[in-house]
Each structure stands twice: as C-alpha cells, then as structure tokens.
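Course assignment 3, question 2. Fill in each field.
Student: A.L.
Task: Predict the tertiary structure for the chain below.
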Amino acid sequence: MADVLDINDSVDLDVEDDGDQGVLRLKDKVLRRKGRGFGTGERREHEKKGYESVDPGDYSDESGPQKSVEGWILFITSVHEEASEEDLSEKFSEFGPIKNLAINLDRRTGFLKGYALVEYGEFEEANNAREALDGGEILGQTIGVDWCFVKGPKKNRRGRMKRH
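Answer field:
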C-alpha cells in the first residue's frame, strides 16, 4: 500500500528562501492519503452514500412495534412441540391474511423449537391477533404473542433516553 501526498497547486514550492516557516506552510497544505485508489493526477471526492430504510408509516414518533421490511411480525412463544404449520395458520388467519409463517424445528429431535413468527401486511391485523391470542391456547398449551421488532424509547443528542 502506498502513501500519497497531495499538494495544493497554489502552493509556492520555493521553501528554501523562507526557511523553517516555508516548510511549515508546505506541511499545512499537504493532504496525506493511505490506501488504494489514489492514482497519479487523480483526485477522488468521497461522497456520503445514502442507505435504504424502512418507511415507518404512521407509527414513526412513538415507541412500540416497528415494521419489518415487508410487514408486521408477531413472535409467538411457548408453542407446543408437536404443533404444525396448519395449526398456527388456522388460528392466526382469523385476523387477516398471513404473509409469512416461520416455524423452526430442532434438527436433533425434529420437533418445534417452541416459537414461531407470523407476519401480517397491515398493522391492524397484527395488533388484533396479538391482543386476542396472547394468553390463548394451541394444542392445550398457553402461548404468548408479542411484537417481534420493538422500538426503544427516544434518545436525545447525547445518547440519553428522554423522560416524559
């Protein structure tokens, strides 16, 4: 890796006449760069790139549930180990069309790990399902239903949480 020194074109290179002051002025005008991509005569301007973000919609100013990229995801806990995808979709489809249902199985036993993710397209559908099914039962076992992604409290410029 090569070091590159850029010297501003307007700098007078006769530093011998000024002595130490000329050398100090020259050092102030030098821009030192490290790394690849700095060819001879080539100047690159670094630009700040924007990143994609999720549109928070109407719920951007409050703490609470946060929308994922495609919808609102519920986290279901304490799911019976022998529950199937059909059992969950039957229970949760009462509140609206399910965009995605994810069930993770234990590789060793082949049974459900005990949790599932259900995604709805609309906030109202997901919220109604969360309120109605939290504490409900699937295959005789009480389940817990809550938001998968939650925004924390707002922070001020110093990184401390605001108190209301």
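Instructor remarks: The first strand starts at residue 3 and ends at 7. Residues 72-147 form a domain with the Alpha-Beta Plaits fold (CATH 3.30.70.330).
Grade: pending
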